[in-house]
């Protein structure tokens, strides 16, 4: 077993062979086998704008697989929390990283990333995500305001980083853009994985930002943005009028009366995350201006 802080990083193919698990695409198991991509992932976090001032650098990895990325993260973080749902992989990780677990440098959580409690002390996440639950995981991570480096399906990454007035711009771009600056830092070919996925991938880096307008409630904001984008061909005036099914928005007419006329004439796809946040505040406050 290699000391996680010294020596060369574990070899991807050797880890797969030791685990004896080839990877099942039906369970989002596409293991990274390209050393150069693996080495770059933690390095993207250390770009100046992503540096954290926290005393303990605690990286969360979702979907640890055979531990090939976990190994690299242990070399640059004080602590790593790795989450893996597959019991066989979790068992392998417990054996492979026995020393790091005993030294209290690695916490292994066997469970579903959508259900586990994410520790408050986490300062960043670097993950090669299970693509079938990317949006749920991204929506869980973004409100935590920590830097993220995530391997994602390329089309998803493009939607996340999209600007207003483009065809990719939607609820994912608005919510991501509210919490963070989003950059695609690297497209990744299918050959970087084993087994190879059917889709192209890309690495996204998010850098938390202080939003111009605070939102009242993360869940409400997501519901509001989703409800408006399901009617993206309508003007905001008509889309908001139709959002009565959002339980917390009981008086859409009051929002329409109070909102800026310029915003109401536009369609959702033209509005920046800031404008969405301003509207969500009004909606939360039943059309009354907010003091926060
Ligand atoms: C794309 S693989 C990445 C594996 C490894 N980090 C790598 O880069 O080679 C995603 C991993 O997430 C695990 N996984 C799938 N769904 C999950 C979930 N809901 N919660 C936690 N892990 C999950 C899969 O078993 C798989 O090991």
TrEMBL record:
GO MF term set: RNA binding; rRNA (adenine-N6,N6-)-dimethyltransferase activity
Domain Ribosomal RNA adenine methylase transferase N-terminal: 37-210
E.C. number: 2.1.1.-
InterPro entries: KsgA/Erm (IPR001737), rRNA_Ade_diMease-like_C (IPR023165), rRNA_Ade_Mease_Trfase_CS (IPR020596), rRNA_Ade_methylase_Trfase_N (IPR020598), rRNA_adenine_dimethylase (IPR011530), SAM-dependent_MTases_sf (IPR029063)
GO CC list: cytoplasm
Subcellular location: Cytoplasm
Keyword Cytoplasm on entry: yes
This protein's name: Probable ribosomal RNA small subunit methyltransferase A
Origin superkingdom: Archaea
Protein family: Belongs to the class I-like SAM-binding methyltransferase superfamily. rRNA adenine N(6)-methyltransferase family. RsmA subfamily.
Protein purpose: Specifically dimethylates two adjacent adenosines in the loop of a conserved hairpin near the 3'-end of 16S rRNA in the 30S particle. May play a critical role in biogenesis of 30S subunits.
Organism field: Halocatena marina
Predominant location category: cytoplasm
Keyword Lipoprotein among UniProt keywords: no
NCBIfam families with a match to the protein in the record: ksgA, PRK14896.1-1
Pfam families reported for this sequence: RrnaAD
Alphabetical UniProt keywords: Cytoplasm, Methyltransferase, RNA-binding, rRNA processing, S-adenosyl-L-methionine, Transferase
Protein residues bound to S-adenosyl-L-methionine: 30, 32, 63, 84, 112, 128
């Amino acid at each position: 077993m290699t000391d996680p802080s010294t020596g060369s990083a574990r070899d991807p193919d050797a880890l797969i062979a030791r685990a004896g698990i080839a990877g099942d695409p039906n369970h989002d198991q596409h293991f990274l086998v390209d050393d150069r991509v693996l080495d770059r992932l933690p390095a993207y976090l250390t770009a100046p704008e992503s540096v954290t001032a926290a005393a303990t650098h605690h990286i969360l990895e979702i979907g640890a697989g055979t531990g090939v990325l976990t190994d690299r993260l242990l070399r640059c973080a004080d602590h790593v929390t790795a989450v893996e749902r597959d019991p066989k992989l979790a068992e392998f990780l417990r054996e492979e990283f026995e020393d790091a677990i005993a030294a209290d440098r690695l916490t292994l959580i066997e469970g579903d990333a959508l259900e586990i409690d994410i520790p408050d002390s986490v300062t960043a996440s670097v993950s090669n995500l299970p693509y079938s639950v990317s949006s749920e995981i991204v929506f869980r991570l973004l409100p935590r305001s920590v830097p993220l480096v995530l391997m994602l399906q390329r089309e998803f990454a493009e939607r996340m980083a999209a600007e207003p007035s483009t065809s990719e711009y939607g609820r994912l771009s608005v919510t991501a853009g509210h919490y963070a600056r989003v950059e695609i830092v690297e497209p990744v070919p299918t050959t970087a994985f084993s087994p190879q996925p059917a889709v192209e991938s890309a690495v996204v880096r998010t850098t938390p930002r202080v939003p111009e307008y605070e939102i009242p409630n993360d869940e409400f904001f997501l519901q509001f943005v989703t409800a408006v984008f399901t009617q993206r061909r309508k003007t905001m005036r008509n889309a908001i009028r139709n959002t009565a099914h959002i339980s917390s928005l009981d008086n859409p007419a009051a929002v329409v009366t109070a909102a800026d006329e310029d915003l109401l004439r536009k369609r959702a796809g033209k509005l920046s995350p800031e404008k969405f946040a301003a509207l969500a505040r009004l909606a939360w406050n039943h059309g009354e201006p907010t003091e926060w």
